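Researcher: Last one for today. Full complex below.
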Amino acid sequence: MRRLLVAVFIALLSVATSLGKLTAAELAPSLAKLQRVGPKGEGHAEATAAWKVVAAAKPQQLTAVLAAMDGANPLAENWLGAAAEAIAQKHPAQLPVAELEKFLAETSHSPRARRLAYELIAAVDPQAESRLIPSLIDDPSLELRRDAVALAIEQAEKTLNSGGQAAAEKQFRKAFAAARDLDQIKSLAAQLKKLGVEVDLPAHFGFITQWQIIGPFDNKWGQGFAVAYPPQTVDFSANAAYEGLTGDVKWIGHITTDPYGVVDLNEVLGKHKGAIAYAYATFDSANEREANFRLGCINANKLWVNGQLVLANEVYHAGMEIDQYVGRARLKPGRNTILVMIAQNEQTDSWAQVWQFQLRVCDDVGTAILSQD
Amino acid sequence: MSRYVILILTLALPALAGADWLQFRGNQHNSIADANPPTSWDVESGKNIAWTADLPGRGPSSPIVVQDRVIVTASDGVRQDKLYILAFDAQTGKELWRRRFWATGRTLCNPESAVAAPTPASDGERIFAFYSSNDLACLDVDGNLLWYRGLAYDYPQAGNDVGMSSSPVVAGETVVVQIESQGDSFAAGLDVQTGLERWRVQRAQRANWSSPVAFESATGWQVLLQSVEKLTAFDALTGKQLWDYKLASSEITSTVVAAGKLFAPANGVTALELSENSSAPKLLWDANKITTSGSTPVVYDGCVYALNRAGVLTCADAKTGDVLYQLRLKGPVWATPVIAAGRLYMVSSAGEARVVELGHPAAGDKGQVVFATEFGERIQGTPAVSGNALFIRSDKHLWKIAE
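Model: Here's the assembly. Have a good evening.
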């Protein structure tokens, strides 16, 4: 009898699903299965069936699907976001715009879910951009913020073209302060420069510019990557000297003047192949907090914060970009230590001679966290 | 003709619809279609343009055709991290569905490329959409998500400085991806039904953009991977290495399997005779005068046709490698040409297309350009052929070219 009841329940659930009549409570188990997908195919079997259930939900349940993206890992976000879009594509005329706007306004929701909510609204409301975007200039969603900055730039350009230079400068400054995307930051810095305003790009990004650098140490055959040379094992001492690849090596103070915080080790240490350098910096934090340590490096690298390994990438000459590698660590109040290892290999190609890195400290949105000293 | 050769010629992918074009270079990885596409068209006037569809992003990937749906991938966003897959009705061009994902791996790309560089593959029922970020989404033909792997989420150092572009292949019940970079570098066979790993083999830590080739032998499905060091054949179901052959092959263009022979982009082109017992192949010839650079050769009617970056077409005898003639077309070229009804269809990166009537080179014929036109947009993807239609995509549009 019990089996029969279960079978009937499953059959009813199946019919309800096919008609898109599931209630929010009935949808919850399927959403949970999508939230549980993990690396290497974990949870696929359950998620495949659950996705169909969720994608068949009523449009009124869109915000519940979007809310399930809160705290979800990037894989689960993709399962859930695709289901939300499938619902919207099936019911383009029945989107719950008011509910979606309410969802968008709650910045505690997943940035990607909120962006998706905005796009669903914008698909049916041509005024959505002008009505909603300008107020999102400091939004935690990078995509929403980007659109708001773009509108602010447009407005500043109009102001400038109509002769209001002082007002335009103020608008450009506001847009620059809000901008987190490299292309917008570059464009705004150039625009402000034309107006006679120099911006502090390293401070805007949070690049560390003052370093102590030591090297080269041996990295022949790439074997040095796994070696713990003294800079890793001995507390920093400005006067220390260690045996290096070509003789004794000492710490060298270096301040990069590159606007994007790039430290060129060929310039600081001379050109070496099969070599390792270390860069050390201190960071005075105003309080205890989580922080992003975002490294751009064309060479193999490791990063330690307060002695804890945060990043390790044994990748040589596969490109370099700002925020290429993102690590997270906890800053303590007062003095923190940062140590970067940058490993050069022995490739002879002309494009494989670069030996450099850049590091910035920021929050999850990319807003700079600056050292207090 | 050996049993092995017959098997290779049939390359029996399961449950194929007649007009499906299931992967990069078509169902048999040979860029040849049993079809009769138009010999002229014009995107300006609309002549022989059955329909045009807008695309939401860029992509060097090619369209595929599955169950009368044209499937295209695209990528967009300031970080190129929005990954699209779209399905269009092949008859009407109506968009049937689109899905979007966020990249879980690296999206750094040369501006000339895009994250939607690999061409999707299908087994006739499922679609495997792969991206430079090493995201691999499996959907059914109605757009239902069946599984999703973030292969760079699993192996975070997979990715190179100009973007990945190797297209996946389906070999029986396994979808094979070749992810070779300066960081995490491997090839993997995943269960088509679950996305779970059947096998994974380490590969050399250097960038490789070539695509694997799958073919069915007497002992089952095999997958062939190439590198600057060697060709290696694996059992597609288990990942067991069957043989390798020392050969410095291109890291960009791919190998052709035709009539029991391999035509590898190495030393120009190198022809090898496949063995019947899954052992290493034997050298037939190599010809460094057959130059390939961005596009993969096509073997058709006893000839090897190779198009170099500058747009020079070389026709060589497939038995000897002797060059029969060369014909200047239009460069620069990334897209592999296709051949149908004795005609070669090529498109340059600048969107200039040429149709070449190939004739019978063995009888002394030389190729003749019979049609030239411009799309006016950048095109890097190989055309797909289905029915008597060509499907060509740019960074902005998808066209169906049919009478």
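Chain B touches chain A at residues 77-78, 97-102, 104, 108, 135, 137, 143-150, 153-154, 157, 159-162, 181-183, 190, 194-197, 207 (CB under 8 Å). The first strand of chain B starts at residue 32 and ends at 33.
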